[in-house]
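Anyone have tokens for YjbE family putative metal transport protein? Sequence:
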Amino acid sequence: MLSLSFLGALLQVVLIDITLAGDNAVVVGLAVRRLEGKQRRIAVFVGVAAAALIRLGLALVATQLLGIIGLRLAGGLLLLWVCWKMYRELRTPDTHAEDGGTAPGGLWPAIGRIIVADLSMSLDNVLAVAGAAGEHMEVLVAGLAISILLMAFAATIIARLLDRYRWIAWIGLLVVFGVAIELIFNGGSEVLSHVG
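Reply: yep, here.
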């Protein structure tokens, strides 16, 4: 039988996931935008599945992660590197190779960018979900599953939009850059407060 605390925690987790999944979906959409049909589906599936495993691992040690000084700063710097790679890709023309539409960089680099960006951006999401879930481990797992599904669904839509409207990719890159700067600022402040 479902208790009120369980349902309340689940509702909180779903709301957090809906709020925070957007940034991750933008990253996935940007990473796969130049891939064609089957490769795009593979990249989204593998990247999002890897993200699910990363998030589950992070969630299991969420409370210990709070104690690691500089983790947000490191995540922000890693995400800044992803932004640089995406910026360089956006500056090159949209040309597809002869081998069935493989994008410059290809399938595996796109999957790699998804994983690195998700690792950088997931910490806040995982900590918020873990805090809302409380002692309900099943709510934590359900919340992570919901966030992964939302990210995959939204990323597919975003990638299609990026195909048609290139300027949206630049806005997406600015969103991801903003998240990186926020992580660097918050993480840097945290490090400075412990140093000083």
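Residues 21-92+99-195 form one domain.
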